[in-house]
Amino acid sequence: MLTILAINAAVLAACFVALWLVCLGTRDVTPVDSFWAWGMLVMAASTYVQAEGDPTRMLMLLAICGLWAARLGTFMLWRWRSHGPDRRYSALLGKAQQHKGWSFARASGQLVFATQAPLLFVVCLPVQLGQIDAAPPVGTLGYIGAAIALFGIAFETIGDAQLVAFKARPENQGKLMTSGLWRYTRHPNYFGDATTWWGLWLIAAETSTGLAAVVGPMLLTWTLMKWSGAPTVEKRLAKTREGYAEYVARTSGFIPMPPRRG
User: pTM of the entire structure?
Assistant: First the structure.
C-alpha cells in the first residue's frame, strides 16, 4: 500500500510541477481548478494499474471518478476560457507580490500549487485506498455508494447548468440566482461535489483499507463549507447582489431543504 501511495504522490507532484511551469509562461494559475478534477482521475488510474484489489470495486471507483472528473474538469476549463483568470487567484497572488515582494513564481508555487497538491492527494484517498484490498467483493454498501456518487454528479451538473443558463440571459445581469436547485440550497454544486466523494468512500469503505479513506470526504466537505468554497463565494455575493441577506435567511447553506418561510 505504501509503495502505491508513494508512486501516486510522485506522479501527482510531477503533474503539478509541469502545470506550474506552464502557468509561469501565461502568468495565470486558473487552470489548476480544472486539474483539481483531472488530477484525482490520474490518482485513480495510477492506483488501478498498480493495485490488485477486487476487480469490480476497482473498475467502479475508476469509472465513477472518471465521469466526475470529465464533467467538472471540462466545465472548469470552459469557464476559464470563457471568463478569463479567476479573480480569487489574481487577488491572492497580487497581495503576495505587492505586500511581501514575492515573485509570481514564488507566490503561485507556494500559495497555489504547493497547497493544492497535498489537498488533492488526501481528498481522493477513497479512489486510491479503495482499490487495494482484494476482499470482500462489492456488496450492498458499495452499490449504495455508487448510486449516491452518481446522484451527486447529476446534482452538481444540473446546478451548474441552471446557473450558466441564468447568467446567459441579459436581463439577469447583476441578479441573484434563486430558482431551480438554487432554491433549495445556496450551493448545489458544492453539495453535489461532496455527495459524490462520500459515495465513492462508501464503495471503498467495504474494505478495511478503504474505510480509512474517510478523511478524504471529510476534508473536502470542510473545505467547501468552511474554507475556500462557500465562505469566499458568499462574502463576494453579499457585497454585489441585492437581496442576498434575504436569500440566505430562507435558503439552506448546503444540504438541500425546502425554503424557510418568512
Answer: 0.95
CB atoms within 10 A of CB 186: 22
Residue 185, sorted as left (phi over 0), alpha (psi -120 to 50) or beta, turns out to be beta
At how many degrees (to 10) do helices 114-123 and 2-26 cross? 140
pLDDT at 156: 98
Mean pLDDT value across residues 162-178: 94
CA 36 – CA 197 distance, rounded (Å): 14
Residue 39: other Cβ atoms inside 10 A? 24
Instruction: Count Cβ neighbours within 10 Å for each residue of 193-225 and write b for 16 or more, e otherwise.
Output: bbbbbbbbbbbbbbbebbeebbebbbbbbebbb
Task: Give yes or no for a contact between 42 and 69, defined as CB atoms under 8 angstroms apart.
Answer: no
Which among 82, 88, 93, 92 is positioned nearest to 24, based on CA atoms?
Answer: 93
Mean pLDDT rounded to a whole number for the chain: 95
Q: What is the DSSP string of 87-137?
A: HHHHHHHHHHHHHS---HHHHHIIIIIHHHHHHHHHHTHHHHHTTT---SP
Count of CB atoms within 10 A of residue 144's CB? 13
Amino acid residing at 88: R
- pLDDT of 52 > 90? The answer is yes
Distance CA 21, CA 178 (A): 40
Q: Are 63 and 69 in contact (CB under 8 A)?
A: no
